[in-house]
Amino acid sequence: MNWNTLKHDRRTLWAGYAAIGIVLAVLPFLVGAGLGNAWLRILNFAMLYIMLALGLNIVVGFAGLLDLGYIAFYAVGAYLYALLASPHFGLHWPVWAILPLGAVVAGGAGALLGAPTLRLRGDYLAIVTLGFGEIIRIFMNNLNAPINITNGPQGISSIDPFHIGNVTLAKPLVVAGITVPSLHAYYYLFLGLALVIIFVTIRLEDSRIGRAWVAIREDEIAAKACGINVRNIKLLAFAMGATFGGVAGGLFASFQGFVSPESFGLMESVMVLCMVVLGGMGHIPGVILGGILLTILPEAFRHAAVPLQQAVFGKVVVDPESLRMLLFGLALIVVMLYRPAGLWPSATRKRELQGGSK
Amino acid sequence: MAEPLLIAEGLRIAYGGIQAVKGITFHVEFGETVSLIGANGAGKTSTLKALARQLDAAGGSVRYQGREISALAPHELVGQGIALVPEGRGVFARLTVTENLEMGAYCRHDKAEIADDLERIFALLPRLKERHGQLAGTLSGGEQQMLAMGRALMSRPKLLLLDEPSMGLAPIMVQKVFEVVQEVASQGMTILLVEQNARLALQVSRRGYVMESGAITLTDEAAALLDNPRVRAAYLGE
To answer: How many other β-carbons are positioned within 10 Å of the β-carbon of residue B10?
Structure first.
C-alpha cells in the first residue's frame, strides 16, 4: 500500500468517524421528534445496557466466567446513588463523589463475589453467582427493618437528578442558545460515558491483562504454566466488570429518580447475558450491537403488538406483554440456530464455529 | 562441585489417604536431560505436577538453585526459570499459533528479545511457522505438542519439565517430537522428562530413574538402563 492510499484510507476513516459522530449527536432530536419521548427514554436505556453488557463481557466474554448474578452490581451502584442523594436519609451528595464511589463499591462487591468462587467453573460458578445476585436483591427487599435502610419493596423515590453544581439535567438546558430538553441531555451524558467505557474496554482487551483473561478462558493450567497469577486475574475480571455495572447503576438511579428491588431480578441478569451472547461473546462491537438490539426489540414488539392484532383480528387477542416475550424468545432461538457465534462475532470465534479450517 | 539445579528429597504425594509417591529422592544437574520412566500409575506425572506446584506435596523438599520452592505459587515458577509443558499439551485452542507462543513470554518485558526468540522457535519448529496464523485447536496432536514446547521455551527457562510428550500421538509424530526434545537438549537446556515410552525417553537422556508404584527402584546412566535386562523386560518389551 503506498502512502497515497494510506492517506486516503485514513481520510475515509476519519470521515466515517465524523459521520457516526454527527448521527449520534442529532439522534435524540430525530428520535424525539419522529417517535416521541418514550423512544428517547428507550434510547437512553440502550446506552445503559451497552455499559452493562460491556461490563459483563469482561467476565463472560474475555475471562470465560459464567456470571448469572451480574445485575447485583447494577443494583449496588443504583442503591448507593439512591441512598446518598435522596430525601430517604436526607443526604444529597454531589454526583462526582457518588459515581466514583459507586464504581469502587461495586468493584469491591465484584471481588468479594469472586473470592469464594475462584475454584469453580462453568455450571457450578453460574449457580453460585446466580445465588449472589438473588441475595443482593433479597437484601434490598428486606433491609427495611429493624433499621430502615433500603425502604424495602417500596423502593426509594425522589432521587436527585444528575446535577453538577447548579446545572441539573432535570430541566431543559440552554447551551449556546440551543435548548436541550432533559431527556436529550441525559442521552448525551450516557453516550459520553458509554464511549468512555467502550474506550476502556478496547484498551483492556489489548493489554497484558486482556491477554491473561483470554488465556484463563482457554486453559487454566496452561495459563498458570505461562506464569499468569490466575487468582488475581480472575478477581480483576470480576471487579472490573462490576465497576462498569456500578457506574451504570448510579446513572440509572439518577435518570429514573426511583429504584426498587424489582428492577434487579434474575430476568435482568439473563437479559444482559443474552446481549453478550447474542451480540458475539468477547467481541466489543458485537456486544454493543447486542445491547442496542435487545433493548429496542422487546419495546418494538410491545409497541407493535396492539396495532398489529387490531389490524389482523380486529381486537386484541393476546396481552401485548406476553406476546412481546414470546416473540423475543423466538427471535433468540432463531439467532442462536442460524448464527451460533452471535450476530457479530469476532473473526476467531467465527472461524472456529465454521469448522476450524482457515 | 556445585549443587545440582534441582533436588527432590523424600518427596511424598498423597491423594486422600492413598500415597501415590512414597518419598522419592532424585536430582537434575545443570544442562543434562533426565527421564523419569515407569508404567501407568507409577506416580511419574504426580511427581512432575508437584515440582511444577500444580499440586501440593504431602512431604519432603524440592530445592531449585539452592532454594526451597515447594511453597511457591505455580505462576511464580516461571519467573524462577522453570517451565512446564503440561500433560495432554494444553495449548490455548482458540488463539493462533503466534499468540500461543507470545503467551509463553507473558512474564517477560523485553519486546525486542521476545521477537528474536519467536524467530528462533520458528526456526526450531518450522511446522509452526507455516501455521503461525492458524488456531492452535486446529493443529494435529504432534503440532500441538510442539507448540506447547515452543510456548514453554518462550519464557526462557533454565529447567524444562516435560510431561508425557508422546501421549496420544501417532508413532511418526512421537519420533518428531523427540527429535525436537533432543535438539533443545543439545542446545544446553536442562530437561526433566516424564515418559511412558521408555526407549525413546532413555535415548534422548543422559540419566534415568525408574519408578514403580510410587518409589524409585532403579537409577543409572540412560545407556546402562537401556542395556539393563530388567528394564528391557519390563519397559522395552523384549
So the answer is: 12
pLDDT digits (tens, 9 = 90+) for B187-207: 999 999 999 899 999 999 999
Pick A42 or A350 by higher pLDDT: A42
The pLDDT value given to residue A350: 64
C-alpha to C-alpha distance for A78 and A99, rounded to whole angstroms = 10
Residue A177, sorted as left (phi over 0), alpha (psi -120 to 50) or beta, turns out to be left
3-class DSSP assignment, residue B28: strand
The count of C-alpha atoms lying within 13 angstroms of the C-alpha of A238, restricted to the half-sphere facing its C-beta, is 26
* Location of C-alpha cell 525436537: B180
Chain B CB within 8 Å of residue A118 CB: no
Tell me the chain A residues in contact with residue B104 when contact means C-beta distances shorter than 8 Å. Answer: 226
Name the 3-class secondary structure at A317. coil
CB A208 within 8 A of CB A233: no
Whether A228 sits inside 8 A of B75 (CB atoms) is yes
**What span, in angstroms and rounded, lies between the C-alpha atoms of B223 and B33?**
13
B84 and B161 Cβ atoms separated by less than 8 Å:
yes
- Distance separating alpha carbons of residues A239 and A76, to the nearest angstrom: 13
- Taking CA–CA distances from A232, the nearest residue in chain B reads B75
Cell of B53: 506446584
Whose CA is closest to A212, among A177, A186, A247, A240? Answer: A240
Name residue, grid cell 505438542: B145
B124-137 pLDDT per residue, tens = 999 999 999 999 99
Query: Which of A293, A32, A347 has its CA nearest to residue B99?
Result: A347
Are residues B90 and B161 in contact, defined by beta-carbon separation less than 8 angstroms? Answer: no
β B190-195/B33-38 pair status: parallel
Question: Which residues from chain A sit within 8 angstroms of residue B159, using beta carbons?
Answer: none
Contact A352 B91 (CB under 8 A): no
**Taking CB atoms and an 8 Å cutoff, what residues of chain B touch A208?**
106
Query: Is the ipTM reported for this complex over the cut 0.85?
Result: yes
- What is the reported pTM? 0.89
How is residue B72 annotated by DSSP? Answer: S
Query: Distance between CA A327 and CA A338 in Å, rounded?
Result: 16
With CA atoms as reference, report the closest residue to B211 among B37, B12, B34, B7: B37
The Cα–Cα gap between A127 and A136 comes to 15
